[in-house]
Amino acid sequence: MNQLTKTLTHVEAIAKAKEVAERIKTRFHLTEELSRQPEENIQDFIDSGLVRLMTPKKWGGHELGFDTFSKTAIEIGKADPSAGWCYTLLVIHSWMFAYFPEQVQREVWENNQDASIASSFNPAPGNTVVSVDGGYLLNGEWGYSSGINHGEWVMVMGFVDVNPENGAPGEILMMMVPKEDYEIQHTWKTVATRGTGSNHVSLKNVFVPKHRTLDMIGWCQKGEGPGRSVNTNRLYSHPLFAAMPVSLSSALLGASIGAYELWRDTMKSKVSTRNAKVADFTHSQIRLTEVSAGLAAAEALLEKTIERLETGEPIETYEKIRLRRNYGYVARMCNQTVKTIVDNSGAGIVYEGNQINRYWRDVQASSMHYAFNLDMLGEMFGKLELGISLNPKTTLIV
Predict the structure, then answer these.
(1) Which of 58, 83, 188, 225 is the most exposed place for a label (fewest CB within 10 A)?
(2) Do the bridges between strand 183-185 and strand 213-215 make them parallel or antiparallel, or are there none, so unpaired?
(3) pLDDT computed for residue 352 by the predictor
C-alpha cells in the first residue's frame, strides 16, 4: 500500500493548492485544445497529496474537512476553471466512495490509494440495469462524466428493474465499474468547460457485483452507507446532496474570483480608444466594487453553509433543502458577477485569446449544472417554507 509519509494540515493543503495553481496556469490554453485535463495537471494533484484530501485515513488519506476542501478548490479554480472542476470531483468522489462497502474499497484503494474515480448521475434513455444472481447487469450509455479520461473507475447511477407500466424502479443504486469494463464515447465537443472532458461512457453487458453498489435512497435521505462502519469520522455522515455540491460550488466560485482578479489587474493598465485610462472612469470603479462585493457575498454564503456541515448535527429534509438552496444561489451570484465583468470588458472580450472570455464561458456553463437548478430547488424550499408537503416519489434522491 502506498501510504503517505505525512498527513497534510489545513494550512499545508492550501499552500500546496497555491503551488499547484501556479503550474496549472501555464497549461491554461492546453486544456481547451485537449478537451480534457492534461496529464500533468492530474499528476500535480496526485504528487501534491491533494487528491487524498478527503480520503479516509484508513486508506492513507488526510481526512480533512469541507472547509479545507473548498479553499483548495477555490485556489485551483482561480487558475483554471476546468481544472478546478475536475480537481473537486477527484476529491469529492473519494469522499463519496468512503460510503461504499469495505470490500470494494479494498479492491480500489489497496491497489492504488490515488485511484482516480469519475462519476455519472446521468443514465441515457434506454439504459437498463437488471438484477441477476449476485449483482446487476448494465447496458447503455451514461453521460456528462467529467474527468472520465483519467478515471480508473467510474461510479454510475442506475435505476434497477424498472417497472414498464409505471416507470418505478425496484432500487436506485450507485455502482462502481472498473476502467476495463467501460468504453469512453468522445462526445464532449463544446464551447465551454472543454477542459472537463465530460464525455459519455458506454457499458455493454457489464456485470456489477452487489458489493460494488450503494443504495442511493438511504445515502441521499440520511447519509447512510455500509462504509461508515469502518470510516467513522463524522465527515462521512452527511446526506449526499447536502454536502456534495460544496465541490462544484467551490470550483465555480474560484473561477469567478479568477475572472475578477484578471479583469481588475487588466483594468489597471488598460486604455480606451481615445487613450484614456479605463481605471480612471467612475463607472469602472463602481462596477468593480459591485463585482467584488457580489463575490464576497457568495463566498460568505458558501462558508456559512460549510460551517453547518461541520457541526456534525443531523441534517433532516428541511435543512438539506436549505443547504441546497444556498449552493444554487452561490452559483447564481457567480454567474451574475462574471456577466457584469463581461458587460464591462469592451469589444476585446470576443477574441478567443482573451482569457476572461474563457472564464466567462466556463462559469456560464458550470452555473447551469443540475445541482444549481434554482427552479427545482426553489420549488422544494418554497413548499417547505410555506408548510406544503413534498412529493415523496420525486424527492427520494435529492
Answers:
(1) 58
(2) unpaired
(3) 85
Lowest mean pLDDT of 27-31, 280-284, 351-355, 357-361, name the range. 351-355
Q: Mind listing the pLDDT tens digit for each residue in 40-73?
A: 999 999 999 999 999 999 999 999 999 999 999 9
Q: Which residues of 321-341 are buried (b: 16+ CB within 10 A; e: fewer)?
A: bbbbbbbbbbbebbbbbbebb
Residue 1's pLDDT is: 46
241-294 per-position pLDDT tens digit: 999 999 999 999 999 999 999 999 999 999 988 889 999 999 999 999 999 999
HEC readout, the chain: CCCCCCCCCHHHHHHHHHHHHHHHHCCHHHHHHHCCCCHHHHHHHHHCCHHHCCCCHHHCCCCCCHHHHHHHHHHHHHHCHHHHHHHHHHHHHHHHHCCCCHHHHHHHHCCCCCCCEEEECEECCCCEEEEECCEEEEEEEEEEECCHHHCCEEEEEEEECCCCCCCCCCEEEEEEEEHHHCEEECCCCCCCCHHHCCEEEEEEEEEEEHHHEEEHHHHHHHCCCHHHHCCCCHHHCCCHHHHCHHHHHHHHHHHHHHHHHHHHHHHHHCECCCCCEHHHCHHHHHHHHHHHHHHHHHHHHHHHHHHHHCCCCCCCHHHHHHHHHHHHHHHHHHHHHHHHHHHCCCHHHHCCCCHHHHHHHHHHHHCCCHHHCHHHHHHHHHHHHCCCCCCCCCCCCC
- Cα separation of 118 and 144, whole Å? 10
